[in-house]
Amino acid sequence: MPRVYQSGVINAEIDKVWNIVRDFNALPEWHPAISHSELENGTGVGCIRHFFLKDGGELREKLLALSDINYSCTYCIVESPMPVKNYVADFALFKITDTDKTFMHWYAYFDVTEAGMEEETSETVKMVFNSGIKSLQKMLG
């Protein structure tokens, strides 16, 4: 079971970053690979995010948990062009108290459904996480 982990420091205070990333439907606003997104089944835990990649791909993800107290979000993939199943991801923000910056980590674990695709799939997920964090760093400079 591959596990992917990426992290970074964002030059903004935690509540400012959280206000951007907590909206499960806001990926197009801060992730460079996403063209648009729509929600199914409401807006809270249990809703489905159906989003479209700029390269034409489509994914559906289910919101499993969202915590304003812990600044965290957990979701799973329902449908994806990637060869994955049992995919669960989580991102969380942490206040860096001596600088008022924010530490973000993003991780996922999953099973790969095609033999020999573990490394390539893990690299794809790593790239997705890394580009999202880099985009937030650039936005919040």
Topology:
Layout: E1 3-10, H1 14-21, H2 27-30, E2 34-40, E3 48-53, E4 58-67, E5 72-79, E6 84-96, E7 101-112, H3 118-140
Antiparallel strand pairs: 1-7, 2-3, 3-4, 4-5, 5-6, 6-7
Features:
seven-stranded antiparallel beta sheet; 7 strands; 141 residues; alpha+beta
Describe the structure.
A 7-stranded antiparallel beta sheet has the order 1-7-6-5-4-3-2. It is α+β, with helices and mostly antiparallel strands and 141 residues long. The mean pLDDT is 96. The protein has 3 helices and 7 strands, in the order βααββββββα.
Number of helices: 3
Which radius of gyration do the C-alpha atoms yield? 15 Å
Question: How would you write the strand order of the largest sheet?
Answer: 1-7-6-5-4-3-2
Distance between the termini: 35 Å
Summarize the structure in short.
The protein has 3 helices and 7 strands.
